Amino acid sequence: MSGLCSATIVLAGCGPTITASEETTGDRTAAAENVLQPPEGESPSGEITIWDRSGDLYEVFDAAIDDFNEVYPDITVDHVAIDIDAKLQNTLITGTDVPDGVFLDDAKVAGFADYLWDVSGVLQPYAADIAPQKLGVNTVDGATYGVPFDLDPGLLYYNEAALSEAGVDAGSIETYDNLLDAARAYKEARPDSGPIHLEQSAFLGQLQLEMYASQLGTSIADADGELRLDSPEYQQILSFLDTVRSENLGTRAEYLSPSDIEPLESGDQVFYPWAIWFSFAPQQLLPETAGDWRAMPLPAWEAGGARSGAMGGSSFVLPKDGENADLAWLFYEFLMFDEAGYSAVWGPNEVYPDGLNTSVPSYRPAADPADPLFGPVEALGDQDLWTIAVEAGDQIPEGTPIPAWWAGAVDYLGADVQRMLDGDLDPAQVIESAGGDIQTNLVDRQ
Question: Are 414 and 205 spatial neighbours (Cβ–Cβ below 8 Å)?
């Protein structure tokens, strides 16, 4: 229980008991009023409006509604496919037609915290079994505002066939120094190659940078929202990327754009350090090399270090102005913490006949290495991606809240990383330039 107290709100069993004779402060009363309470009664009923982005996950969640209604037959789910980024902010500000539940990127939860229920109380029975990183990114000032959905562990995808042909043993890669050595050996065999992916999108480049930082137990901001870019960890990560650039060991392209796909198919780009969701590429976008790709845990920054970090992720949030947020909690509780629910999401379904293999559950009982929810991935040579990803996810260090200004930092940090990859800045200059701009233009203006 002590781990739960440190990761989430101080709950009744974790803090001092407040008796009726003790004075209740205004702050404490306000905090209690913001904590979501579950519905009362054995047969809750009503209608809930749930917002999800259109696409494959919408279809997966939609198909799970029938399973939910087997447990809660009197709750009607109005499931709406919507452009959340375009609609949510104005809807919460105006308080008009507010949904009961919303699918939201982890990076955006903190920015909407004032409009959301604190779900620490309803999460209490499950919190000890939720990946600490997911609780960390959803917890702001001791209150948890998101029901964790997926865990997106970073993995190293590699073209096993191309490497074998060049005489490079991927099994020797345990650290990032090993990865550089393997890339050098591959480039010696294929001089025109750029073996390691270098991300050209400022946004995705910053997201990948945070994956590397997550491995080292850090992030752009600490738990109090204070900037911590100026650190040995970020210097190490940026130096690695700069080495890839300076030694011509990389292919610089935007994620799965035509300029990225061509060198992936030709064998010029053979190492892709990315979130688990890169598995989509060999399954859908790389017909010529499908079956040649494999996944392994990320290299460690130092021998014995963590072999994964978080890259992206989403959660479910419950707006306070939703009419039936307590009933929406039951929907999310079913999807994430009930075996029938999480099996419907990640297991074989109409959308993913072999199961949803672009993430793994953040709830540990659902992420059992010995009880896979999705099967071997044919495009990865029938590799058991489930076990690799689940075991990698267990190595992700605990996270901190993603600051509300994270997306704004892309204009500075994401842009300056690209300037470094252009050869215009060195790692120290990126830290100085981006750090100063973020502090002045974002942190100090909160």
Answer: yes
